[in-house]
Amino acid sequence: MFALESRHPSGIPATLPTTMYNDNALLRRERNLLVLLAVICIALVGGALYLQFVEHQDPCPLCIIQRYFYLLIAIFALLGSRFHRWPGVRLLEALALLSAAGGIATAARHVYIQVHPNFSCGFDELQPIVDGLPPAHWLPSVFKVAGLCETPYPPIFGILLPGWSLIGFVVAFVALAATLWRHRHAR
């Protein structure tokens, strides 16, 4: 006779695969987390600009490189948040993860230089490269080198500025690695 359509406890008809709804919810959540990551990275660059323009702490070559990595993470996260399928999201999360890894290496080097003040960042070697990048010509007040890596600025809550940057990159790296691992089988 007539078969009654059974329903899933969520109200979704049982004839439709519930994994489709779960995948959409997971993807939506993932996209929201990517937007949050982008906002945090942009806020960190905003904090660096505050320190530069208000506190008069001139950025060194490694500071500028770290800004680039934070902005790359933000750009990849925002682009990933616009995708409606897992492959595109995963690709952009992987690019953001690589940017976070580059940021970790740069910030760790900067921390090493700050802890060993007799060691230099190689201002003469890095400065022309960093200043030669296109954004340094488009926004020189934001992307031009004006300081030395070994210049000690007052720590914030006992942690040097490159240390805070390192923490930010590690948090971004761990979050991105965890989400890539957790959703590695998502379609």
Automatic annotation (TrEMBL):
Residues 1-33, 183-187 are cytoplasmic. One of its GO terms (cellular component) is plasma membrane. The keyword Mitochondrion does not apply. It is found in: Cell inner membrane; Cell membrane. Disulfide bonds join C60-C63. Residues 51-68, 109-163 are periplasmic. One of its GO terms (biological process) is protein folding. It is a multi-pass membrane protein. One of its GO terms (molecular function) is electron transfer activity. Keywords: Cell inner membrane, Cell membrane, Chaperone, Disulfide bond, Electron transport, Membrane, Oxidoreductase, Redox-active center, Transmembrane, Transmembrane helix, Transport. The chain crosses the membrane at residues 33-53, 65-83, 95-113, 156-181. It comes from the Bacteria. The keyword GTP-binding does not apply. InterPro entries: DiS_bond_form_DsbB/BdbC, Disulphide_bond_form_DsbB, DsbB, DsbB-like_sf. Required for disulfide bond formation in some periplasmic proteins. Acts by oxidizing the DsbA protein. Belongs to the DsbB family. This is Disulfide bond formation protein B. The gene is dsbB.
